[in-house]
Hints:
This protein has a domain at 35-83. The protein contains three helices and no strands. It has helices spanning 8-28, 35-52, 59-87.
Amino acid sequence: MHFGYDSIAEFLNRQNRYSDIEAENLVANKVKFSWILFLWKPIREFLVRYIRHFGFLDGFYGFALTVLMMVYQLQVMIKLWELERQKK
């Protein structure tokens, strides 16, 4: 198991920083906010991390990490929405 952080606070700070970058990249690539993406991205994250990559085998840790990554995807979409509104 690989841990790229020492605490949940460090993980969340990193998640916030990376979601800014990802939202800006989406804007640069002309991706627009949509409710479909807003709903799909966290669902996809769950399917990939928890099911396809067997996150459920890691017990609570796998579940918690999956939920946090689903929240990350929501952050990205909300930040994309916010960036689009700032442009108007």
